[in-house]
Amino acid sequence: MMLALALGMVAGCSQQESTIPAPTEESIETVEETQEIVELNYYSHPDEKGERNAIIKAFEELHPNVKVNLIELPPDTSEKLTMISKVLQAEDTAMDIFDADVIWPSIFAAAGWVEPLDNYMTEEEIDAHLPGAMYANLYQGHYYGIPYRTDTGMLYYRKDLLEKYNKSVPTTWDELVQTAEYIMSKEGGDMTGYAGSWKQFEGLTCNLMEFVWSYGGDVLDEDSKVVFDSPESVAAVTRMVDMINAENITPEGVITFSSGDARDVFFSGNMVFLRDWPSGWSKSQDPENSKIVDKVGIAALPTGGEGNESYSTLGGWQVMVSAFSEHKEEAVAFAKFRASEYSQILMSKELSHIPSLKTLYSNEEVLEAMPFLEDMYPAIIHAYPRPKSPYYAELSNILQVELQNAFKEHKTPEEAVKSASDQIKTLLGQ
Ligand code: GLC
């Protein structure tokens, strides 16, 4: 009872509470000597600069009766999914809370592996987040996660090189290719033009969808009917394949690049354009990592051409509570703290993670950490979701495999698109 009251008061478990304060001397509870310590295991992204442990420490100061163990997951999103799925499938009580990608709530909710969080959240708490970030957590009328970070694909460009050659930021993919070719021909050496995360993993699906949408195509329509096999999708895949095999503007090995690899080439000064998430920003401005500090600009991704629009894939991360946790109340309290203003500001400053909380888009500390945030707000708010489906992981894998077949010229773009479309139809029983 004492425990429930403490959590309710401090972490906002009661229906009246909305935001969570940063820990203060006064707010720190004292543990009764007889009180049992509850241990929570939090399966998380790896701790990069000690920031995740700092959040845990702040939470533990507020809740001296709770100890949170950080269990680090692999950096690759697809590997994270495999690991979390195994633990959940085994109904293992060892995992209480975990970081979840924006496309996982439907997968885990449909399997009954995660705790619905509606009863723990007020309307006000739900409304505090950007609508896209919160909607991703909704499955059949219930919320299953609390977003702590949203994400949006963006175009990074070399400000200095565009200025030097009097070129503007490209607004179409064709223009991007022409500008890259021009600058590569002038700069010579190891200069390359463009890369994203094109290895076979979830990042590739994010990159592909931006091309497909920007040419006017899609994978599923509003009624979840498969519509992938279209001239628009073929144009998008052709554009990507040609960058590698016709125009040669991508660095060697691009089809094995995760986000870190594409960043490395860009940060070394040998690439004109990069597709990345905002988390690349703080790294690009760190002289330990980057030779191009102060030479980087950020803009919306290009469109497929006239009449088309720019699209960014909605990414982002939430905290979910395992249905098999034996400490759900404490787990929810931690999840709320992980998604609180305090934690989101800290992550914005340390790792340029863009917040899911609306109020933070006018927060001075956050804006100072990410000067591009104001200009990119339209792209952030309109970031477009990947298909929402309990079969998402399989669907995404089909797209990745077939796109790689086109990259390697085992199939033409037409064949790869048709094959992916047929397999997705079978997967979804259409
Ligand atoms: C980022 C995004 C996530 C996406 C992943 C792909 O972490 O936030 O949504 O699935 O990249 O690698």
Question: Mind explaining what this structure looks like?
Answer:
The chain is of the alpha/beta class and 430 residues long. The protein folds into 2 domains: 38-151 and 315-381, Periplasmic binding protein-like II (D-Maltodextrin-Binding Protein, domain 2, 3-Layer(aba) Sandwich); 154-311 and 391-427, D-Maltodextrin-Binding Protein, domain 2 (3-Layer(aba) Sandwich), CATH 3.40.190.10. Helices cover 43% and strands 13% of the residues. The chain has a 5-stranded mixed β-sheet. The protein has a 4-stranded mixed β-sheet with strand order 8-9-7-10, with helices on both faces. It has a two-stranded antiparallel sheet with strand order 4-5. The protein is globular, with a radius of gyration of 22 Å. The model is unreliable at 1-21 and 25-31 (pLDDT under 50). Alpha-D-glucopyranose binds at residues 77, 101-102, 151, 202-203, 206, 277, 315-317. Residues 77, 101-102, 151, 202-203, 206, 277, 315-317 line the site of alpha-D-glucopyranose.
